[in-house]
Amino acid sequence: MALRYDAGEVITAMVTPFNEKREIDYNKAEDLAKYLISHGSDALLVAGTTGEGPTLTHEEEFELLSTVKRAVANHAKVIMNAGSNSTQTAVMAAKWAQKEDVDAILSVVPYYNKPSQEGMIEHFSAVAESTDLPVIIYNIPGRTGVNMLPKTVAKLAEKYSNIVAIKQSYGDMDAVTEMKLLCPEDFNIYSGDDSLTLPMMALGARGVVSVASHIFGSEMKSMIRNYKSGEFLAALNMHKKLYPAFRKLFMAPNPVPVKAVLAHRGLIEEYLRRPLVELTQEQKDELFEVLDGIMKD
Predict the structure, then answer these.
(1) How do residues 64-122 score in pLDDT, each as one tens digit?
(2) Active-site residue, 138 included
(3) Domain coordinates in residue numbering, the chain
(4) Where are the alpha helices (DSSP H) in the chain?
(5) Are strands 135-139 and 104-108 parallel, antiparallel or unpaired?
(6) Which of 137, 142, 183, 283 has its CA 20 to 30 A from that of 161?
């Protein structure tokens, strides 16, 4: 079956490296992008929540996108975060992303406003009608305060061919099943939580928009490939192996823990933009002990 759009199996929601002045370190961003695509990532999501997108200026987003596109050099797809709780702003972001020739956009369910399901339909209709780019809906009730229902997703997927997928960051497996029943067959579902990747794949998900793939990209890819090739026990064993990391990488607000690990590995500096703060040394010791133990197994 041909898919509407295929961003691959492992999409990494890429962190944004900063220097000691908390300015973007574009050299580190380029190096990190190259590292990720050589370690299992099929696509990179730029300036999302993990990339501290809410703290970036428009000019910074432009330069960061250019840097990542140059780094991947057509070896991976580049997806731009282009969501907002203002429909007008989301439409403007989608139009800007199209001008910048990205491969697709991620657009979040409006946060804080708590729109109705009909409001969500109107919001994403406006986004889809404003661009020719593939649109991936991002449903994350824990951050937005409201949940997009499967029937709402299905209505949008039926009406707009460029609404191609959903990033589902919500551990309701019945909702995933309902989306598979209601949505067109060529519409993709991605897990938005690393720990839900294998359970969602059992229900027909395509892959994951991942944080853990910064550290365990090749392992995430192996787990997915093993599942798809019928090596279910191997996939389950990898899930079990990585599960402690999945949990520890969210011991503090994302991307605080993953940036600490990347700094521990020498890939970036740990700096974050406020209001996020770095882990304490005690927290780091706890995190590194778990992840280093997984790496040694």
Answers:
(1) 999 999 999 989 999 999 999 999 999 999 999 999 999 999 999 999 999 999 999 99
(2) yes
(3) 10-231
(4) 26-37, 58-72, 87-99, 117-130, 141-144, 150-159, 173-182, 197-201, 213-228, 232-248, 256-264, 281-296
(5) parallel
(6) 142
Gap between the Cα atoms of 239 and 244, Å rounded: 9
| Domain range 10-231, its CATH number among 3.20.20.70, 3.30.360.10, 3.30.428.70, 3.40.50.300 | 3.20.20.70
Task: Provide the pLDDT for residue 1.
Answer: 63
Whether 167 is a known active-site residue: answer yes
Quick one: how far is CA 81 from the chain centroid? 9
Catalytic choice (69, 167, 221, 259): 167
Tokens of 5: 């759009």
**138, 190, 227, 271: which one is catalytic?**
138
Q: Residue 206 in 3-state DSSP? A: coil
